Amino acid sequence: MAPATVRRTSVVAPWIRTRLRTAPGAALALALLVALTACLAAALPRALDRYADAGLHRAVEQAGADRTSIQLYAQPEYGIISEQDLRPATLGAQYEKILATVEKPLVADRRQSTYGVRTSTNMEVPDPWLPRPTGTPAQVALVAQQGLADHVRSVEGRLPRGPAAPADAMTPEVEAAVSAATAKSLHIKVGSVIHVPGESQAPLAVRVTGIVTPREPSGAFWSAQPLLHEPALIRMPGPSSDADRYWVGALLLAPESAPAMLGTPGTPWRYWQLAPAMKHLHAYDVDRLKTAVASLESGPALQQARAITGGLTDTDTDLSEVLTAYSRLREGVSPLVAVAAVGAGTVAAVVLLMSGGLAADRRRTELALLRARGASLRGLAGRLLAETATVAVPAGALGLTAAVLALPEARTTYAVVAATTVTAAACVALPLRAAVAHRAVRLHTGREDVATLRPTRRRTVAELTLLVLALAAVETLRRRGSSGDELAYVAPALTGVIAALVLVRLYPFPLRGLARPAGRLRGAVAHLSLARAGRTSASAVLPLLALLTALTTAAFGGSVLTGVTEARDEAALLAVGADARVDADGPLPTGLAARLRHRPGVDGLTEVSIAYQAKPTDGRVSVPLVGVEPGGYAQLTAGTGLGAYAGHELADTGGVLPALASPSVAKAYGTRPFPVLLEDGTTTITVRITLVRDRTPAVNGTEFLVVDRAGLSGPTARPTSLLLTGTGMSGANLRKAVGDAGHVQTRSEERSHYVNSPLQSGAEDIYTAAVAAGAGYAVLALLLSLLRAAPERIALLARLRTMGLTRAQGRRLLVLESLPQATLAAAGGILTGWATVHLLSPGIDLTTIALATAPSSGGTAELRTSPLSLVIPALAVVLVTVGVAGVQAWWSGRRGSVAELRAGDTR
User: Fold this and answer.
1) Can you tell me the mean pLDDT for 523-528?
2) 73-98 burial by CB neighbour count: b if 16+ within 10 A, else e?
3) What pTM value is reported for the model?
4) 182 has a pLDDT exceeding 90
C-alpha cells in the first residue's frame, strides 16, 4: 500500500495582502494621490492639444472662407475651350482626381467643396430696370456651381434647370437663380429676364426662376466667392462721390447650362474649390499642413492637377499666410505655457517623492528589523515595489481614464506617457528611499533630529549643483526670455527648490534660539512644543521642499494672471482714454452731453474738441490739436493716470495759448511760440509748449497738442468727443442715447477684443490651474506630513495626560509643535514667491497672451506681483496646520489612553 501523500500548505500570509490589511489608510491615501496626479498629468497634454486646435480653428474661421479655401482655376489654353470641357461629367471626374492629389494631413471637406464654371470678367447688362445708383449699368457674373440644391435653405420659385437640348455657345436662353440679398439689392424677382451681352451674336437671355436663401452663408460653398450670396456696390477709381458706383451680382446657372457662357464675352474659366475640413486641422500638424498647401500652390500636387485639367491651372489661397500667422502666435504662447507646466509638474513630482520618503520613515523600524533578520536589499526593495505597484498601477490607470473621458478629441500618446511616468515615480519612490536608508544593516540608527543632524557631503554637493542650475536658469530667462532655452522653463521651480533647501539648513537655528527663552517660561507647553519641533525626524522636513516649491509655483502663476489682467486694462484705457467715449467726425449735438450725464453708471463727463488735421508752423505736418476745459480735463487725467497736470497750468490768459504736448512734438517745436493752422484752413492760433506728457486721454497716439478750448473759436471750439467715467456703463445703453450722432466705444468692450484666440484663454486657464495645483499640493504635502506624525503625537498626548496634562494644554502643545515648520514655510513661500517674480520679470514677456491684437501703443505686458496668490496659499498652510493639530487633539481626547499606551506599539 502506497504511503499517503502529505500536502504541505504554507502558513506564511502573502506579503502584499498582509501589508494592505495592516495599513489600509496609507494605501488609500497613496491611491488617491496617484490617481489625482496621474489625472492632472494626463489631462495637461490633452488640454493643450484642445486649446491649440481650437485656436487654429478660430484663426481659420476668422480669416474667412474666401482666404482659406483652395481654389484651382483653369484658364483656356490659347483662349480656346471646348463645350465638352465645361460639362458637369468632365468637371466631376477631374474634381475626384484633384481630391486624390491633396496631401495629408490636409483633407478637403466634401460637404463644402465644389466645382464649376464662371465667367472670368463681369459683364455690363443693359436692362434699364436694374438699379443704377449713379447712372452706370449694373454688371453680372455667370456662375454654374455644382451642388446648389444641397446648400439652400429655402427657394422662392424653383431652382434652375438645364436647357432641353445640350447647351452650347448658340443657346439663346438659360435659367438662373439669385440669392435673396442679390434679389433685394438688384430688384430682381422670379420671372425677371436679364440680357447678358453676346459675343458677336444676340444677347443671352437669363431668366430668373428662383430666389434662394443660403443654408450656411459663411460656409465655403457660398463665401469662397462672396459674390454668390451677396452683391457688391463697387466704387470706381477717382474722387469719392456718388457718381461712380455700380452694382455687381452673380447669376447662378444650372451646371448643364455652363457651355452657354461660350457665347458671351465673359471668357468662362473652370474652377475646383477645396475647403479644408476643420476636424482634420490639428495644431501639431501645422508644419505638414503648410507643406501640403505649398504643394498645391507651386509643388508636386499642382503639377498633378495641371496634368489632369490643363497646363494653365493655377492656385489661389491665403491658407498658408493664415497658418503662418497662427504659428507665430503659438510660438509666443507655448514657452509661457511650458513654464507653467514645468512648475506644476515639479510640484507634483516633489510631493510624490515626499510621500515615498515619509512612508519609508514611518516604516523605518520595520524595515531595519527585516534587514537585521536577513532580508536582502534587493528582495526588500522588490517586495516594497510590488506592494506599492499593487496600489499605484490601478490608481494611475483610473486617473488616465478620467482624463481621457473628461477631455476627448485629443492625442492619447502623451497622456499615456505622462500618467505612466507619474505611476512609475510613485512605485519607485518608497523602494528607492528604503534601499538608500537601509543599505547597511543597523539595529539602531541613533537620533536623526532636524536640529542636530549634520548634512552629508553628498547632500551638500547635490544642493550646490541645484544652486548652479537655478542660477543658470534664472540668468538664461532674464537674458533670452522664456523662449530662449529649455533651461529657462524650470527657473521658477528651481528657485523654489533652492529656497526650500536654504530654509531646511536654516531651520534649526531659530529652534535653538527659541528653546532657551521658552524654557524660562512658566508651564511646560511652550518649552515642550519647541523641544518636540527640534526633535522632529530629519525626513519630516521634506514637506518644506514640497511646500515652498508649491507656494512659489502658485505665486508665479498668480503674477502671470495679474500681469495679463493689468496689461489688458492698461491697453484698453490707452485706446479709449476713459471708461467710455463718444466720437464724431464733426461737432456733436448741443444737448447730447446733458443727456449722457444722466445715464446709468455715468459719474463724470468731459467735453473735448479734436482737430486731427491741425498743422503747426509750416503747414506740412499734421498734429492732433485737442481743445479742453483745463479743470475738468485735469481731473480726468488724474483719475486715469494718463498725463496728469494741474488745471491752472493750461488756462488761457490771453495772447499765446499754453499747450501740453507729447515728447516728439515738444522736441520738434521747442518752447518758443509757434502758429498752428486749424482745419478750416484760414484760422491760426499761437501756442507755446509749457507741459510735456507721454500720454493724454483724448488721443491714442504719440503726437498731440492740448490747449484750452476757450482760446479757440468757431466750429473748432465745439466738442467733437465726450470722455465718460464711471462704473457699470452699458455700451448698448450709451449707443441708444447717442443714436447716429456719434460712435460709442467702451473700455470693457475694447478689453474683450484683446482675447481673440483660444490659445490666449487656454494659456490663462493653464496658469489658473497651476495656481490651484500649487496651493492644493502645498496643503496636501502638509496633510501628509501631519498624518505621518499623527500616531506618535496621539501616543505622546496619552502619556502626558497620565501626568496631568489637560485637554486645552494638549491642543496648545500640538498646535505650537506644528507652527514652526508651517510658519517658516508660509513666510518662506511669500518671500520666495515675491523674489521669484522680481527676479524673472525682465525675462517674461506676456504680450502675446495678454495683447495679441493690441495696438503698439499698449506696450509690453510684464509680471505683476499678486498679493492674493502670495498670501492665500501661505495662510491656508498655517490654517490647515492649526486645524489638523486641533482635530488630532480632539480625537485623542475622545479615545482612551489605554489603547495608546500598549507597550512596544509605535505604529
Assistant:
1) 64
2) bbbbeeeebeeebbbbeebeebbeeb
3) 0.80
4) yes
